[in-house]
Amino acid sequence: MNITRRGFLGLGMAVCTAGLSACANFGTRSSNGSTGSDTSGSTAVQQSDVDLNEFSDLAIDMGAWRYDDANDCYYQLGISYCTKPATTTYESLAIFVPGAYFKGEKRLSGTYKCSVVDDATVGSFTPATAPVLMPINSSFFEGQSCPTAYSYDGLSRYLGAGYIYVYAGFRGRSATVESESNSEDVISGGAPWAVVDMKAAIRYLRYNKDSLPCDTSRIFVFGFGGGGGISACLGSMGDAKFYDDYLNSIGAATHDGTKGDSLSDAITGSASWCPLISFDEADAGYEWMMGQFSSQGQRADGTWTKLLSDDLANAYGDYVNQMDLRDDSGNQLTLDMAEDGSYVSGSYYDHIVGIIEDAASSFLSQTTFPYTYTPESAEISVFPGDPNLTSTEDVNATVDAKESGTSVPTTNNKAVSGVTTVQSTVYDSVESYVSTLNGESRWLVYNSHKQSALLTDLWDYVNTCSPATRGVGAYDATDRSTTLNQLFGIDNETTLHFDETMANLVAAKQESYATCSDWDAQVVNDWAEDIAKTDSMNSDMGQRVAMLNPLYYLSAHYEGNGSSSVAPYWRINAALFQSDVPLTCEANLVRALKHSEAVKDVSFTPVWGASTFMAERSGNAEDNLLAWVAQCCAKG
After folding, report:
1. Assign residue 585 a region: left if phi > 0, alpha if psi is -120 to 50, beta otherwise?
2. What's the CA gap between 258 and 53, in Å, rounded?
3. What is residue 49's predicted lDDT score, i.e. its pLDDT?
4. In whole angstroms, what is the distance from residue 502 CA to residue 527 CA?
């Protein structure tokens, strides 16, 4: 399997030294509450080399604040965070501030001119220590527009705890046009623009650090599914040089306006639920984790896509063995090849099984029986900040549900059309619950005395709890029909192939695939032509894929390892009863993070029985998130 990507051969060792220790300190704060340089991860620029007024248009207007007296909240909507936005609809942000942090003077216009109250305290924080929290509502990389209306709904848990809440818009998986203008010019979207836009928003906050009542060295980003993937990219790709041309093209701030010091886009913490990442191997990982155990649909015997599924699963085995994934003792995790060429044993296999066993043990030991199981609905509550999301159905978010036949979270509070309501089931005892899952086989064994579960077979677990419901490939479909094919489209070419492993397989194995009656030789040219295309910034497909792969910057297997500033704190949750994101995504990310010197702590929670993205073993997802942020801040 060819992992090396074109377009990265020019990466110098000088770049690799940038910001290895940056995550521990993104800047200092003076006694008056203003943030210091925030230059970690970037090379300081001499004042004589830069124009201190270059980004003066990005200075926040401290006389433009609105005030919600009933909830004691100051806010601004629609702030452009770059000087040359491609789309103001998406490349703008909203800021929400606890009222205690500001002293506001009302103006005739109805706005407030605000100054920071240095000695204010909200929760455990002050204006000098308050973290910034940035949500990502994007289950499958749909765009997040800047709020155009204000609502306090959902914000109280964040502002009441003393956090600054910043809702930044970003472009989604497809190209777009500016809705508020008469122009029909296509605005680039897809990979890697969502990450680019979020990086620009982070730099904007640091550009205004002396005016805002927060510590911009404490920025936390969080999301689910595709949004979790964006969060993971931001956490692993701080100050990555491959983004420079993209950031410059939209006028993202590169230095402050006082000393000319470089601005960092590195963050302190990344939280994600079921992060969808690593598209160089995600299709292969899906087939290894789920596809190879299925014989339905495109994986039925006699179809060429069944052969492709098996080849992808085996390619994933080769990939794992080339990686530098290690367990907590430092031993390399590998897969063993069976006589038929498959990889269904080895230390990596045991590691995946162990993750599932730990989650099952936790669930069975902590659940009180009789236990009532109610299938999770396809709706979830989005992170607050944009009241439009609670009333407008996002049609794009349902596309993958129609592709895969499964329910997925939407970016609103409405259920996906066509989802059937299923009645709850009551289990009288742990024995009846385990027996029902086992069916005619005995793949799950629970010892109540030791409070431990044993998984005897990965195959039966997958078919019972997490069956393959996506086609082959799960993300790069043979007919370019998935939302991830949109993610790698280029402007008017709305969907493109992107998986180089699949491109190589269909080319190398076409004689074998041609023995099947449903073989279409056109796919060989389709993949080859798409992989060779470049985007508006002249980046090839390999580079764009790498720019959405956290492991490219975390693993020694990739050329980008060590060339970015990595967030010190991570929170990752996996839902073990869903079929959109293979467990390999979370497992590989966690392994890479735990062996990164820049990372201080990784909280990883696999959740048994969860079938929607925002999985938690107990409690409310947002409350648990805020508790985690507080713990990270307490650690320094």
Report:
1. alpha
2. 9
3. 81
4. 8
Q: Three-state SS for 246?
A: helix
Distance CA 636, CA 626 (A): 16
Q: What is the spatial distance between Cα 202 and Cα 239, in angstroms, rounded to a whole number?
A: 11
- Cα–Cα–Cα angle for 144, 147, 152, rounded to 5 degrees: 120
Query: Do the Cβ atoms of 165 and 158 come closer than 8 Å?
Result: yes
Two tokens, residue 446: 């629970």
Confidence at 63, pLDDT banded by 50, 70, 90? very high
Task: Give 332's strand partners.
Answer: 326
Distance CA 404, CA 276 (A): 15
- How far is the C-alpha of 579 from the C-alpha of 380, rounded, in Å? 17
Mean pLDDT of the 170-187 span: 80
User: pLDDT tens across 415-441, in order?
Assistant: 333 344 557 899 999 999 999 999 999
Given the structure tokens 């307490």, which residue do they identify?
Answer: 634
CA atoms within 13 A on the CB side of 121: 2
CB 595 within 8 A of CB 326: yes
Q: Which conformational region is residue 373 in: left (phi greater than 0), alpha (psi within -120 to 50 degrees), or beta?
A: beta
Question: With left for phi above 0 and alpha for psi between -120 and 50, is residue 236 left, alpha or beta?
Answer: alpha
Buried b (16+ CB within 10 A) or exposed e, 331-345: eebbbeeeeeebbbe
The SS3 assignment for 110 reads coil
d(CA 597, CA 592): 10
pLDDT over 90 (residue 39): no
Least confident of 15-19, 363-367, 386-390, 606-610: 15-19
CA dihedral 199, 257, 562, 285 (to 10 degrees): 0
Q: HSE-up of 151 (CA within 13 Å, CB side)?
A: 14
How far apart are alpha carbons 443 and 454 in whole angstroms?
8
- Reported as type and span, the H/E element at residue 604 is strand 601-607
Contacts of 448 (CB under 8 A, 6+ apart): 364, 430
Asked if pLDDT for residue 181 goes beyond 80, the answer is: no
Contact between 197 and 171 (Cβ < 8 Å): yes
Report whether 99 contacts 176 (CB < 8 A): no
Per DSSP, the three-state class of 212 is coil
Q: What domains can be seen in the chain, in order of their start residue?
A: 20-278+559-635 (3.40.50.1820)
Which strand (E) or helix (H) includes residue 446? strand 444-447
Among residues 81, 196, 76, 202, which one has the least CA distance to residue 132? 202
Place of tokens 């998130």: 625
Beta bridge partners of 164: 132
Residue 570 pairs in a beta bridge with 270, 602
> Per-residue pLDDT averaged across 387-397, rounded?
57
Per-residue tokens: 280: 């160089």
Q: Beta strand pairing status for 371-373 and 425-427?
A: antiparallel
| End-to-end CA gap in the chain | 41
The reported pLDDT for the residue numbered 182 is 58
